[in-house]
Design brief:
heterotrimer, A mainly alpha (435), B alpha/beta (315), C alpha+beta (149), A: 435 residues, C: 149 residues, alpha+beta, CBS-domain, three-stranded mixed beta sheet, 7 helices, 5 strands, 17% strand
Chain lengths: 435, 315, 149
Amino acid sequence: MSFAFVIDINSVNIVIALTVLILTFIFISTEKLPNAIAAMTGGFLLIVFRIVTQEEAVEFIDFDTVGLLTGMMISVAVMRKSGLFEYIAIKGIKLTGGNPWKILVVLSIVTAVLSAFLDNVTTVLIIVPLTFAVAEAIRINPLPILISEIMFSNIGGAATLIGDPPNIMIGGATHLDFLDFISNNLPVTVLVSIVTFMLLRLIYYRKLMAIVVEKERIEAFDETKVIEDKKLFTISLVVFSLVIMAFVTHQLHEISLASVALGGGFVMMLATRQDPEEILKEVEWPTLFFFLGLFVIVGGLEKTGVIGIVAVKMVELSEGEITYATQLVLWVSALSTTVINSIPFTATMISVIRDMEAIMPGNIDPLWWALSLGACLGGNGTIIGAAANIIVAGFSQKTRYPLRFAEYLKVGLPLMFVSIIIVSGYLFLKYGLLR
Amino acid sequence: MILTVTLNPAIDKVLVLNQFKVHKLHRLKSSELSMILPGGKGVNVALTLKLLGNEVITTGFTGGYTGHLLCDQLRERGITTSFVFTEGITRTNTSILDLKNETLTEINDFGKEIEHDDVTFFLDNYSRLLHRARMVVIAGSLPRGVNDDVHLSMIDKAREMDIKVIVHTSPDHLDALFDSSPFIIYPDMRSYHKLMGQPCDGIKQFVNVGKEILNRNKKTEYVIFTHRIENVVVVKRSKSYILRPENLKIVNMLGYGDAYLAGFVHAYHTGKPEIDILKYASSAGLTNVENLYKDIRDVSLIDKNIDRIKVEVLA
Amino acid sequence: MNQVKDYMYKDITSVNETTTLRRAIRIMRLHRIDAVAVVDKTGKYAGCISAQEVINASVPDYIKSIYNTSFMSRIDQITAHLTNMLDDPITHLINKKCPSLSPTDSMAYAADLLSRNKKTILPVVEEGIFLGWVSKIDILSVVSDKQKT
């Protein structure tokens, strides 16, 4: 009798937690509610329904992730003031001599590199307006460049631990450190980049090169002017390099990611004499609260045992074989994140993989890489696949060149499949055959 | 609010000289006067109306530094301006008053050409101003580029809103107005002694032509001739008035008609009996010509001079 | 008390919702004033269009999103955008929520409202009727030796 009662309570809890999670997913994916509001309200509901207590909710929050995000946001806010990003982008553009295809390549590479170190949304917010400025100056259609930039923001973001929210979350939740990400993800992202450039060249080269560009229009840009304060420029660059070095050498000092990032951010403010009020305003508080809310919801779900059930199912499906499980996680992640936000998806999957770890024999690291690469690159499939995509599309709607869903899909979806096939082969070779 | 329209305003350069001679360099002495004043008929009316305590808006076309000078001076006197600024500059009218010989020499510049687009905008702006007006006074000449139709449009727009219009302009612009029936037609006969194709001077002709105008303009109530200051003729359908000032001492005829008009409009809005309105208007004209300036500086004199106006009524 | 009605700039030239931007700019330029009032068909004040808003609208969103545009100092995109807008009606440029003054407000309040809203000029409106403008210079003239205008 009492046993049945317990089951009953738990199934009610499962229904509530699942409902909250699904509603949150829906509200976020359809953009009916701002992410932060949806996630925080969802988390609050779980506490109201007594599925989690406040103490538990706080425990669910992965402060390594939140701290790393915050620290990076602070550093970026200071570095933006230095004009560093504009300097790099404009310098690159001028090197192309106004050749539109080369501009696409250069801006995509800059996007990829910046995304590898900064949040993708921040990167496209820097690069896309510059792209419009350049495209308008040389009178070309910016859409091919924008599409390429979207793809490379996600590809570049996949390369490092700090490049994309899924990676930051995985880095925060697991033992995998900065160097692990570099050694596992960087080679395959470079490969994906090369193939993507080749395919984009097939699609866009003729269209882009149909226009004769006046070189003087590019020469009129003056990148030297953006560096108004040389000292700020140098100091922020040095401190940021130190932060990256600290990430790379994590095994030597074992200072956690969040501490390095937060410490780096505040040291940068100290060294460049910033007004904290001004810089802290630049921190994307809505994103941080979005993460906080999500951690609580996923934690609540975990507590109800639903996550465990999914984990068991996934292990069953892959017959307990790590190679199969890796492919399963990769494709599920890639296909899911083409339509739903990769952040709540990753938060959920992290719990699932943790539970799988308990019942799978051997090293499950390939699953983390599959999740990381699947969730990052899957975002390339559609215009709503990643936050950066949505930002670029939204931005373009206000211009003469609105980026349409179908137009992006025609290019993005096939290229996403190609990249996942490459990753699939890579993971299969690396962790299946060559193990 | 009374809205006065001056399509072709001016800056009046007034020189009061002891003696004016051609072919001679005049250096002004301290006993002589040089004034720069806002001018144009509607502007003069507005100035006097404001002095009499009425709230006034003025509109028309203006431009350039003289345009700004004009508007600044009007606003300084508390008048609300809403001129349409055009690319050209507002003209300057020069008047030289010779005290010894009692002569007045006037050189009226022509206005700059107004672009069609500006005329359209003027009418557009005028329509909005009408919402604040209880009477419209259209006075003065037309600048180049603006044809008589603008008068018709203004009268029609005002009628739609049930606002009375007084037109004070020279006979060559009046023919176009017939059939539009403004409240008062007040021909400016200074340079023309013909109206409706016939000679028009002297009491008899004024009355006859006035009646003819009233016949053609069904809604017009008054036709006023003030050109002969010794016999101001006001023609109505039922009767006509002749108003004569006593002991007239003309000092400066400048601005006489405008002062008359301002006096009429002011008195009309105080709700006086018709005869008193006409006497007040004539007294304003009289007061104006008896002072040196082109406008009345001491409005209390108007009331004092009223008794010097004698009225004769013709059936 | 120094009241708005004693210092306001009583020029009430106005436009309506369908006036072209070209005309609105022409008024601002020739009247040497930073804004034009919008008055509707019934003679009621409906908002204003200021030089500030016109310039703001002619700067494309992408330029506004660039953190530091100094590298574009030799690029002339904004005037091109403005040129394209000239013959459009001003409808979408009208600031219907532009703060306004009442003639009986004090000039001190006018000063505060101007600086609070980062405006150079504010309309004076009474019972829906547009009466004139108060600009920063009008505020300064309250304390300067220049007497009421």
